[in-house]
Every structure is written in C-alpha cells, then in structure tokens.
Write a structure and sequence with these properties.
Order of helices and strands: HEEHEEEEEHEHEEHEEEEEEHEHEEEHE
CATH architecture of the largest domain: 2-Layer Sandwich
Largest sheet: 5 strands, antiparallel
Distance between the termini: 32 Å
Structural class: alpha+beta
Number of domains: 3
C-alpha cells in the first residue's frame, strides 16, 4: 500500500510530500519529511494513527518545532503538525487551548483577562502541546503550575483526559506523556491586578530581547540546567562563547543558545552541541544534558 497516496487523497492540500523541515523548525534547517500532514479533528487523527499502526510507519508529532533539531537525512514516515489546531478561549478563570495555539498567545489572553500564573511564560516560542509535553518554563514559572488537565488521544486513537495529578512532572519532564498525543489543555488561573500583570509580561518580553539572540534562528536553551548551576555559565567558563562549526555558533549574547548564523546544516549544529558537551565535561566535570530533541538521521 502506498501510504503517501492514501494520505494525499484523505488530507488533500493539508498533506505535503518531501517537505523541507527547515520550514517547520526554529533552527531553520533540517532534511525533508517524507509526508507532512495537518490533522485537525479527532477523526483525522484516528485515520493517521490507524494507518501508521497497521502499516508499521514511523510517526512523529510536531508543534512549532522550537525545541527540535532534524537531521540532514530527513524524516521517514509521517510527521503530523498540530498547527491547524489553534483555538483558545477564556472562560471565567480558565483558559482552554488546543495543542497548536502559541503558548505566548495563552499568556497574552490570560493577562488581558486579568488572570495571573502564566505571564512569566511570555515569549516562549513553542505551542501549548509542546509546552505541556516537556513542562516548558522560564523565570521560575512552569506550564504545569496552572495546568488543570490535558486533552489527549493515545496511539490506538482512544481519547483521554489526563489530570495534572495523574502526570508526575518535574523540570522539563513529564512522565507518561509520551504514550499520548496532546490535543489541548485546560489551565486554571487566579484573578490578579490587570496593570501589574501587563507590566510583568512587558518586563519578561524586554528581558528576552535584552538577553537572548532573538535575531538569529535558534531553538532556545540547548541544555538542561545542571543541579545548582547554569549551563550557560559552564559554557562561558569553558571559554566557548562564540565557538563555531560551519554555520552554527554558540551565541555571543547568551552562551546557552546555539544559533544558525550562516546557513548551518543540522550536522553543524549537532557537532557543535557535541563539542560543547565534550569541552564542558573536560573543564568542569559536568555532563551537560540536552534539553533539545534530535530527530532523524544525521549525515556522517
């Protein structure tokens, strides 16, 4: 069976073949996805899942691609984007958002409604689905702080509502979430002063502009924060700020970021990640752990 034909017939213009992943990741590099589709409804998700299961086809789910590096050899099988699932609404002190809504949009909605608890997540470039999946956070706030429930579907196509208490979570980690596809989430926030929230959101946005290399493609913090320290400090201390391989370099503005400054290949970025880890381990004894996700195969 030609699964590409099946998906093209079913999804029509919402199915792209040999789609360059440089168009769908914030690193702006990456080989082609064999098939790239935009499921929207539960029925569409069920169709993809059943096809992948019965034909034993590799399946990946992507939001905004803001924490992913795709190898130069691309992605075999099916890559599903949640980007068309982009509805969000405020109801009393709750925000209900689909997986493909920008997390920053939820922060904006919450502040506009005078609801506190997510304003420090402002400017995180990911989707709600991605933020829930990894418990994204910044400036002392995390996605799970205000999370009430996750609306999901398992890989058999069965719907599920997962309560926060059912999902053990910690720093950039959610246990068991990998068994599900996040379709949306509900957040419960608390009424706070509108002017204060607006100011706090603005301050966070300013901090990001001042401290992060937002003018160049990157995928945010490359490494997880080591216990009691910061990856950026260790990278700095090892003298690696500005180190480059090919078109990728350790940002001069924030050593925790790798930027694509000159048409970097995925391999340039991956090799630079490896080199940074090697030198930091050599100089400080600390084994930096990747926060970013590597997909597909990288050229030798």
């Amino acid at each position: 069976m030609d699964f590409k034909k099946e998906l093209s017939a079913y999804f029509k213009e919402n199915c792209l073949l040999d789609e360059p992943m440089s168009q769908h990741t914030t690193y702006r590099t990456g080989g082609p996805a064999q098939v790239y589709v935009y499921p929207n409804t539960r029925q569409e998700w069920s169709f993809v899942l059943k096809l992948a299961r019965t034909e034993n086809i590799a399946l990946r789910i992507i939001g905004f691609g803001s924490n992913i590096l795709v190898g130069g050899k691309g992605l075999p099988g099916i890559t599903c984007s949640t980007k068309h699932m982009n509805q969000a609404a405020v109801k009393d002190n709750r925000i209900i958002a689909q997986a493909g809504v920008a997390l920053d949009k939820v922060c904006e909605l919450s502040v506009a409604a005078g609801l506190g608890g997510m304003e420090k997540l402002s400017g995180i470039p990911g989707s709600v689905g991605g933020a829930v999946y990894m418990n994204a956070g910044a400036f002392g706030q995390e996605t799970f702080d205000c999370l009430e429930y996750v609306e999901a579907i398992d890989f058999e196509g069965r719907p599920a509502v997962l309560l926060k208490k059912d999902l053990p979570h910690g720093y950039r980690h959610v246990e068991g979430i990998e068994n599900y596809i996040v379709l949306g989430a509900g957040f419960t926030l608390e009424k706070q002063d509108f002017a204060t929230l607006t100011e706090n959101r603005h301050l966070i946005q300013q901090k990001r502009i001042e401290k992060q290399p937002l003018d160049l493609p990157s995928a945010g913090s490359v490494f997880k924060r080591p216990v009691g320290d910061y990856a950026s400090r260790l990278i700095d201390e090892a003298g690696l700020r500005g180190l480059s391989i090919g078109g990728a370099k350790v940002s001069e503005k924030h050593a925790g970021f790798i930027v694509n400054f000159n048409h970097a290949t995925p391999e340039d970025i991956k090799n630079l990640m490896d080199e940074v880890r090697r030198q930091v381990k050599e100089k400080s004894g600390v084994e930096l752990e990747l926060e970013q996700i590597l997909w597909g195969e990288f050229e030798a």
